[in-house]
Amino acid sequence: MSISTNTINIVKTSLNHLMKAGAITATDYDELMAAITRQEASEPAKTQALITRNAGAKMLGISTRSFDRLLKDGTFHPIRVGKRSIRINYAEIENFCNQSP
Whole-structure pTM over 0.90, yes or no? Predict the structure, then answer.
């Protein structure tokens, strides 16, 4: 059974308020948070949003050839979807864009 991220965040917030109010002990809070963390870690990986090289290049504002150089140097990890077709995980490009210089 999968618990939504929204529900997990509500439970975490509620536990925090309950601990501050003295309704649960700090030890119980720590054990419950550890159980939630284990549950999150055991959740199956969500499906990946895959995009083309052209879309990735447009996201970065560079040419397809420059994007190919990033693939070649290992910045991004292509996923083969056919004999000659590859896709790139959207999250990889998003993380790359969010990195501070």
Answer: no
